[in-house]
Amino acid sequence: MSNDLSPRIKRHEFANPTVLAAALAQSVADDLRAALQARDGVGLALSGGNTPKAFMQALAQQPLDWARVVVTLVDERWVPENHPRSNAHLLRENLLQGPASAATFLPLYRATPEPEAALDELEHDLAAALPWPLDVAVLGMGEDGHTASFFPG
Predict the structure, then answer these.
(1) Alpha-carbon gap, residue 71 to 107, rounded angstroms
(2) What is the pTM of this model?
(3) How far apart are CA 108 and CA 62, in angstroms?
């Protein structure tokens, strides 16, 4: 079996960022609805940063059984949630509003000096509450080409 994914990659073009955000929100919601038909709970992991704000706001408006959705982040800055650069704060402000506030949110930050000190607790919490494998993971890309806090070079 070939590991070449290029035949399955499809290019999508959008008129502007608002149309892109709405289309991505619809696609993610469709995938989550399909997964909810098969299972009691579904898992969604999202990127932080400034790029996904409009997408998160559009996704929050999608009709879903949000109480059966578990949301986490694919990456997080190691700062408390009240810090302006916190991805958890961004997600709470832009996704977990209205009906989407019924979703279960698993933040990644813990009040430890280094992320490694919280790793065992995080692994336990994620394994206990998040359906695996994830049903949807959205990996954003920054203007400098980074995704999920992996930076080129």
Answers:
(1) 8
(2) 0.86
(3) 25
